[in-house]
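Tutorial, part two.
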Amino acid sequence: MHYGSTRIGIIGDDSRQELTVISDTVNLASRIQGLTEKYGARILVSLPSLYNCLSINEINYRMLDMVRVKGKSVHISIGEILIPRIDLLSDLKIATKFDFEEGIFSYIKADFALAKEKFEKVIKINPNDKAANMYFERSKYFLETGAGDDFEGIHQWESK
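Running the prediction step on this input gives:
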């Protein structure tokens, strides 16, 4: 999910017309939706969209990543909507949200030792948390290789 300005219109010629919505907003929403499998998430949302929601305190979510998707030069923060009692995986993600987000903040600050520790704690409780496993591996990698002075904590996704 993402919000912003869009255009709706009919495209095509007289023999074949189609109603469509087009805009940079629609493109970015599609790119975000394309990341659900990579993070093992049901619903992804841009955090700016979520933070504009009047009932944000009633929504279970966790911060997930800062990403730059294919075709974009700027990054966007994304979150995962968590649905209580839909399945064990969602309930475990809700239960480990605090440690997961502490791991995210440590990762962004390039404190990879603490990030790895936090994600390892999440994985012990929820070994099927794809995002926690991904961050654990990222943290381990940067601990071994170093991140460089230009590290921003932004992940570049090249595919949809």
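The two ends are 15 Å apart (CA to CA). In part three we will examine how such features are distributed along the chain.
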